[in-house]
Amino acid sequence: MASQAPPRIFSRQRRIVGLRRARVRQAHRDAARYILDDMVEDVLDRLEFMRLAPNRVLVIGDWTGTLALSLRGAGSEVEERDVATLDEEQPVPGAPYDLIVSLASLDRVNDLPGALLHLRNALGDDGMLIASIVGAGSLPHLRRAMLAAEPDRPAARMHPLVDNQAASALLQRALFKRQVVDSRSLTVSFGTLERLVSDLRDQGLGGTLASAPPPLGKAALERAEQAFRKAANDKGRVLESFEILTLTGWKD
């Protein structure tokens, strides 16, 4: 029996457009980039702790270029790819790699089990994958605001996200011999809902659903803003959380 194709939840073309827009927005002095900065720092800390010095590395999704620069400085040969130059749901060219790092990318592919299997197949015998994604515990205040915006018939506006347990099962399903999934929380302060949405767009984290809902109307947007402001502290700031999941898997 032929296997069914995975449901088309995300649009790769919308992801590419969002990435291009983020690169333009990064020219502004106050553009946000804290998600990737945090992920890059975490990966470098892990490699230093493990005293890992990979020869060939594939870095996916780091549009800051910081990770590749650091790895090249340590003597690694590094290839950089993003959603516009690599379809993670297809076999990965250029293999084998000693290390593959994917940042803020795998949480927006339609066939995540298949993508993980392709990445595993692209590793050498002792190769390792480190993949950081925005996890299921992220953006609780934004999610409540979107539900409040359309209380009768809410449209699907927020991405489905992977939790820790599901991530571990996915690594096993992709045949990684050893796997570790851990999470951490990144808390960011916002004065307005508009600034939160702007930060997401700065970082290429805007909506990429295949079935894009229409923009919120004026009344719905006001309901969303009111719901968001209800979470403000005594200083008028909303402390929003991003859960960062890091998936680590070894081929052998």
How does the SSE layout of this entry go?
Layout: H1 12-25, H2 34-50, E1 56-60, H3 66-73, E2 77-81, E3 97-103, H4 112-121, E4 123-134, H5 140-149, H6 164-173, E5 178-190, H7 193-202, H8 218-229, E6 238-250
What portion of residues is helical?
25-40%
Order of helices and strands: HHEHEEHEHHEHHE
The number of helices is 8
CATH architecture term of the domain at 12-139 and 160-189 and 240-250: 3-Layer(aba) Sandwich
CATH topology of the domain at 12-139 and 160-189 and 240-250: Rossmann fold
Largest sheet: 6 strands, mixed
Distance between the termini: 30 Å
Helix-and-strand structural type: alpha/beta
Strand content: 15-25%
Low-confidence stretches: none
Highest-level CATH class of the domain at 12-139 and 160-189 and 240-250: Alpha Beta
| Corresponding CATH superfamily of the domain at 12-139 and 160-189 and 240-250 | Vaccinia Virus protein VP39
